[in-house]
Amino acid sequence: MSLLWTIVLGIILTGHLCGGQEELLEDSLETAVDDVTTEGTDELDELEEPGLDLSPPDDRQPCAMWMGGVPGTPGHSGTPGRDGRDGRDGPRGEKGDQGEAGENGDPGEKGDIGNAGPRGFPGNPGLKGARGESTLSYHSAFSAGLSEIVSATNVPIRFNKFFYNDQHHYDDVSGKFRCVLPGVYFFTYHLTVYTKDAKVSLYKNDKAIMFTYDQYQETNVDQASGSVILRLEAGDEVWLQVYGDETVGGVYADNTNDSTFSGFLLYPAIPERR
Fold first, then answer.
1. What is the pTM assigned to this prediction?
2. Can you tell me the distance from the alpha carbon of 141 to that of 177, in angstroms, rounded to the nearest whole number?
3. Which residues pair with 190 in a beta bridge?
4. For the chain, is the Cβ count within 10 Å smaller at the N or the C terminus?
């Protein structure tokens, strides 16, 4: 009985229900009224108050004046709608942290040779080289003449009039040139022939290297000459001498006719440095 009265009072205090609940409200109200009449009108009279309206609600009154019903069963999920249009680009984010360096890739193919670059600045001067040997130490030369007729044969001719012999490599006592600096030498002689034939040979270490022969013509002054290039070692000797007997000793010299013998070093044989 108390539960029934609670329902009736809730309906009365709330007011009107929505249109879909009107029939249910009418049935519930009629049932409630009948129960109240059956049990006795005394209790109903006690509940009446001045101004309380127990009549059924108007069909056209808004549902906002009635209390909400029991929530219905949730419906099925609808079909997904179509994709909407793309939105506008958002603002650019802040720069992220630098990532770790990746592994080195494979070397690429060699490219073409580029154009030559501009010329650089001159470099610093190098260190001063070691002092070399003086060229004066490789000088060897002589030029000598006769001051009288050669009288002896088969012996070195002694040239005793010097035009040049600063190194003293030619000895006027022995009549021989003695090699001090090994190397290649040039020798030449120019002889005046007078009164008889002349046959002269150039010697190197007691071996005749070359011969010059001139046949004298009466009333004439003849000339005989020769030249040769020799490689000499230190200690080698070179000289001129009449080759034969007195009949071929016509080498002559006086105040107006000279007979000369000359030689000089072309280039020295410098030992290799180790």
1. 0.51
2. 10
3. 225, 260
4. C
